[in-house]
């Protein structure tokens, strides 16, 4: 094998995604392992090392074929030191030295980045942002994550917490409590969780329609149910979509007015709603964006799906080694 591989890792609270990636961005093999957050997360790096060794053996490859290991991890990260400052769902203590632990476990050079930043790098390298050096990636999932890239480099911030787009205050007066401790965050209205919350608030008023029928049938509803009902012209679902697209379009315009990126890439499970979400978000974006920004910054849907994180993590090593 003449081409070297990079290990890309997307670390999640329940599942860890891994991939062998070439320096050209081709995924050779990808797989998942459970994330063991017991014992204060002390088994995580060892399990990753074991999984890599097993896959190398399956592919009849030596560890010397690996250039390094890049990882996207949840929470704010000190990139230079490879320290995860704090994370709730992995059991690690604050200021966890992840880079050092990962290098010790794998005997590979490591680079650590926030998981949303890694996804943004993946989209810049091989996805919807390919060719763009100024890019904002917004991940609409259970929460709302973000990554900001300027001149081909992730904006870290003084404490590794830049790009927390989900915690932009979307509703300045009042608004729902957010898990971060603030109220009115964008995450409370534009995430899958936020969309369901908005729907339940309205349904509690006794409003009838497709969503109320879905709730009665399943004892729960999902963000997908809201989008499906809106496609069927359900008035309640349409009103929820109007609220979501207003706040998201307004927030994206504010970001773009500050940064004027070439592209804003929307990813995550909520973005799979497609045009029924993107079109009204674009309308609100154009309403609130400064004219020069409106004419130059383009909104696009992410194209890499779950591969964005592992590709962005691999890019960290490619960039670090100038491969």
Write up what this structure looks like.
A hairpin with a 4-residue loop joins strand 2 and strand 3. With 323 residues, the chain is an alpha/beta fold. The strands form three sheets. A five-stranded mixed beta sheet has the order 3-2-1-4-7, with helices on both faces. The protein has a five-stranded mixed beta sheet with strand order 10-9-8-11-12, sandwiched between helices. Strands 5-6 form a two-stranded antiparallel ribbon. It starts with a strand and ends with a helix. The model has no long low-confidence stretch (mean pLDDT 93). Helix 1 runs parallel beside helix 2, helix 7 crosses helix 8 and helix 8 crosses helix 9. The protein folds into two domains: 133 residues, Nucleotidyltransferase, domain 5, CATH 3.30.420; 171 residues, Nucleotidyltransferase, domain 5 (2-Layer Sandwich), CATH 3.30.420. It is globular and about 60 Å long. The chain has eleven helices and twelve strands.
- On the 0-100 scale, what is the average pLDDT? 93
Low-pLDDT segments, ≥5 res:
none
Question: What percent of the residues sit in helical stretches (DSSP H or I)?
Answer: 25-40%
Strand order of the largest sheet: 3-2-1-4-7
Order of helices and strands: EEEHEEEHEHEEEHHHHHEHHEH
* Percentage of residues in DSSP E strands: 15-25%
Q: Identify the CATH architecture of the largest domain.
A: 2-Layer Sandwich
Terminus-to-terminus distance? 17 Å
CATH superfamily of the largest domain: ATPase, nucleotide binding domain
CATH class call of the largest domain: Alpha Beta
Please compute the radius of gyration using only Cα atoms: 20 Å
């Amino acid at each position: 094998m003449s081409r070297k591989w990079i290990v890309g890792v997307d670390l999640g609270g329940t599942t860890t995604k891994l991939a062998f990636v070439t320096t050209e961005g081709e995924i050779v093999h990808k797989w998942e392992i459970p994330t063991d957050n017991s014992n204060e997360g002390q088994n995580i790096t060892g399990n990753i090392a074991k999984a890599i060794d097993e896959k190398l053996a399956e592919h009849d490859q030596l560890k010397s074929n690996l250039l390094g290991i890049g990882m996207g991890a949840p929470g704010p990260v000190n990139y230079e030191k490879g320290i995860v400052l704090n994370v709730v769902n992995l059991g690690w203590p604050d200021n966890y030295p992840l880079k050092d632990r990962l290098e010790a476990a794998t005997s590979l050079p490591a680079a650590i980045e926030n998981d949303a930043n890694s996804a943004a790098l993946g989209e810049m390298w091989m996805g919807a942002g390919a060719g763009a050096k100024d890019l904002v990636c917004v991940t609409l999932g259970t929460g709302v994550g973000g990554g900001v890239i300027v001149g081909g480099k992730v904006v870290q911030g003084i404490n590794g917490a830049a790009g927390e787009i989900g915690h932009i205050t979307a509703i300045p007066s009042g608004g729902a409590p957010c898990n971060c401790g603030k109220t009115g965050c964008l995450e409370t209205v534009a995430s899958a969780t936020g969309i369901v919350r908005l729907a339940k608030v309205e349904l509690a008023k006794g409003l009838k329609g497709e969503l109320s029928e879905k709730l009665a049938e399943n004892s729960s509803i999902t963000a997908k149910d809201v989008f499906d009902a809106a496609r069927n012209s359900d008035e309640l679902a349409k009103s929820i979509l109007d609220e979501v697209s207003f706040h998201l379009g307004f927030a994206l315009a504010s970001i773009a007015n500050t940064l004027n990126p070439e592209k804003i890439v929307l990813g995550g499970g909520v973005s799979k709603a497609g045009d029924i979400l993107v079109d009204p978000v674009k309308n609100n974006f154009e309403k609130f964006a400064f004219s020069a920004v409106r004419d130059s910054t383009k909104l696009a849907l992410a194209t890499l799906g779950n591969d964005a994180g592992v590709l962005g993590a691999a890019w960290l090593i490619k960039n670090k080694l100038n491969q």
